[in-house]
Design a protein that fits this description.
169 residues, 35% helix, alpha/beta, 7-stranded mixed β-sheet, 9 strands
Length: 169
């Protein structure tokens, strides 16, 4: 699998999502919305993604599949239906990655170097404290709307989309 094939597959899936009203929808923990694979492919190349990657709220798995083209990639998603969908795509597309069905606030972040979030709400103070204690790496927040209460690092702009970094050491 390469990027162009992955994008073609998800372009087809997105057309189906649009016709069924599943392109954006409310879940029990937040909002599911599709991520732009072209933007993220450019971003992953720009940061030379090559470490242990975790997508916080991985939805249908597309960001994890893309990241797995660069490194070891894992997604954590609370909604079982979305994890099941990710596992279905993983099997059909033959990807080597992992999906965890859980609240990401319950995970041990010490084994990851990169955390990624396309957040639809602010991070809780409890979660930020957990990150400070456990995580030694870079958190990237896509779109820059709901930002954590952490010291900002660089903002990486990809086609006018901000992706903000936070270094936790």
């Amino acid at each position: 699998m390469n990027f162009l094939r992955l994008k073609q597959v998800f372009d087809t899936i997105d057309e189906e999502y649009k016709t069924t009203g599943k392109y954006v929808f409310k879940t029990s923990k937040g909002i599911f919305g599709v991520s732009d694979l072209e933007i993220l492919n450019k971003f992953f190349k720009k940061i030379n993604l090559n470490e242990n990657f975790l997508d916080l709220g991985s939805g249908d798995g597309r960001v994890v599949f893309l990241a797995s083209l660069f490194c070891n990639a894992t997604g954590v998603e609370f909604e079982k239906d979305l994890v099941d969908l990710s596992e279905k795509y993983k099997k059909e597309l033959n990807f080597n990655c992992e999906f965890i069905c859980d609240n990401f606030e319950n995970l041990d972040f010490s084994k990851y170097n990169i955390l990624f979030s396309y957040s639809d709400s602010f991070f809780s103070d409890k979660f930020v404290e957990k990150l400070k204690k456990e995580f030694k790496g870079t958190l990237y927040v896509y779109q820059g709307v709901f930002l954590p209460n952490l010291k900002k690092g660089k903002t990486i702009w990809i086609e006018q989309i901000p992706i903000i970094s936070y270094e936790l050491a």
